[in-house]
Amino acid sequence: MKKYGYFDDLRKEYIITHPDTPLPWINYLGTDSYFSLISNTGGGYSFYKDARYRRLTRYRYNNTPFDSNGKYIYIRENKTGKFWSTTWQPTRHTMEMYQCQHGLGYTTIQSQAEKIHSNVTYFVPLNENLEIWKIKITNHHTHTVDLSLFSFVEFCLWDAQGDATNFQRNFNIGEVEIDSATSTIYHKTEYRERRNHFAFFSCSEPLKGYDTQREKFIGSYHSMESPVVVENGNSLKSHAHGWAPIGSHHIEVTLEPEQTKEIIFILGYSENKKSEKFSPPDSQILNKEKVNQKITYYKDPKNVEDAFIALKRYWDQLLSKFTIDTPDVHTNRMVNIWNQYQCMVTFNLSRSASFFESGIGRGMGFRDSNQDILGFVHLIPEKARQRILDLASTQMPSGGAYHQYQPLTKRGNHELGSNFNDDPLWLILSTVAYLKETGDFDILKEDIPFENQKNSEKSLLTHLELSLKYTLDRLGPHGLPLIGRADWNDCLNLNCFSEEPNQSFQTTANKEGKIAESLFIAGQFVYAAKQMNELFIYLKMVDKANHYSGAIQKMEEAIVQHGWDGEWFLRAYDDRGHKVGSHENNEGQIYIESQGMCLMAEVGKKMKLATKTLASVHRHLATPHGIMLHHPPYTRYHLELGEISSYPPGYKENGSIFCHTNPWIMIAEAMNGNPEQAYNYYLRINPSAREHLSDLHRCEPYIYAQTIAGYDAPTFGEAKNSWLTGTAAWNFVAISQYILGIHPTFNGLTIEPKVPQTWLEYKVSRLFRGVIYSIEVKRVEEGENPSCEVDGIQVNSSTIPLPDVSKKEVKVLIKIP
Ligand code: BGC
Ligand code: NOJ
Fold it and tell me: Glycosyl hydrolase 94 catalytic domain location, by residue (predicted)?
């Protein structure tokens, strides 16, 4: 199979050597508010905070080529009239060289055509709402060349939803302004209303010309491949009045042989602070002062260089909090670099904006964001803290949660409502992970409103208890949690069969009389409640701990009594009380989610159900490409199951390898004392270990994808929906906490290695509550016993407490059998 690139672990980059990757292989720029997506051929889009409401540039989903519209620079040799683009797309000309380096928060694309070499670096400086494109062009001819450069972005009319649909309005509202003195194009559509925001696109060179109207730049019956302005070598100084505003600078460059020229482009977002809001009739005057300062600053290459170095340092410092050195290269590079990087991206963007998520329908997911925190909390705990508070503020007094909220408003999204009954419990997992990481128990006392309503505040601890109560208030006929609209599996819609309420079951908790129950939520309840219990015990709140012990025990009994199918856990009972995920079913006999959750919660521990369950998972669900969601997949649509059966067999929720769930089984295997199997599953979906399969896998080899087509799909092994998936966080948890065995607890850092026998030793450096734990794990020598040494002193526990305050480092040596 073809290789499209390689990992450069030292530089922390993935280097793409062929531009025609099976799918766009992308990167994310921006760490806080301003984000920019960029593919290996310059495609992508930018937005400020909210991919729906503050979209700066336009992107066309579902297009051919797949990746249409981006951050382009055309180069034209004036004498010959030949032209090309520095990122291969959109011209797709023949190239003398091409290389794309995706790094942490930056992307550099080098290419050469007609002996003109270009090197463009795109990045978002820390704490700025702008992106830099720094281009260096070198002439490798033996004669002087005259070049014309044309930059190109197409502006989005801010609300990406309206932008993609409401053309009778859109074609009339576009407005721009050009400031030749600073080489800046302003996009100010919406500014005349109350909106107060605008975009700017500037450049470090004087302009020969510019264009701001797409039709003029491209030409009515031309395409991005050969815009008429580039063909002719002359910009038209067009002004957009409606239609499709773009930003294109025209720059002339003359280069002697081997001469290099550097040019900087700056694309950014600005908004006036409320107090600065210009009132009508001045409302059309842009507040350019702040912007001009930024532009002047970043036109200086020295400042750009400094910002780039600062960005690199930022990432080096973040990733230094958790580093490993193991015998396996795929584990090393994913854990040290890419998995943590992806955790940051999923934390920032939830499931909103990728090349597969349009940034329109989905804001921050309640369930999603809580899980993202699990893989992110060690990186920037302060941000995780704020996110937990934001999420809890959308919670309802019942304990229920809005399924999503818009990042800009932080308000719950009403359309999607609240009855995904697993949602509230995830808040417990994120909060406990935060507490274990930081020891910041004060967060539990924070007063947090419900549904963002003033004067409704209750402590975070109360919110967490309400999450448990929410489940307990909604139990079905078997004493198992009602599923509501769906649980983790959005597409298992077991209450959608009949509109008629089920008369045999009417309680206040379930006004609609819908009775479908979820074994996943049952397991999740036990898992979350046990963590709460541990917390109450730690906080010496004995009554509470006892209270929930009772609830846990009852739930476990219900699971074992009504949820055990003989060789695995059932998945659910549908609205008619029929089993889902049982050997009695023809299709969908066994599901992964309830196995994973119940085993992580140690349900049925006394009865030793784990080994049998895991054997069933292995037998029925495991494939060389990962573990499938369920099997056999549904071959026809089932009204009583809903969307799950709307997918063809082997895709997405209908029995694909839904990567998010695989780490649950890895964790269960590790907990059940089978490190070999845990690690084997880990490698099956590790993107780096799948790099050699790129033509089949198709998605980026440095990032987890949400789904890999299952055994029954015609494209078994093909990944889709890369980047924004809970797979990132959960895999990080599985490998770092359960396989490498380093997990934070209330009392210290616990180290319990569960690694394959072939590993003779490995090292981990882990920053925990301000202390660096330098951990070495080795195999015992012959005749030696397993042991743990902390700073040279033997200890009996695998939990290493924090040292004396004056100590900033502890050395741990663990010997394993
Ligand atoms: C997808 C799910 C997704 C849901 C969100 C479904 O079509 O299959 O994975 O969570 O949409 O809206
Ligand atoms: C993707 C969603 O983002 C996630 O919340 C859900 O659990 C999975 N799909 C499974 O349906």
Answer: 314-741
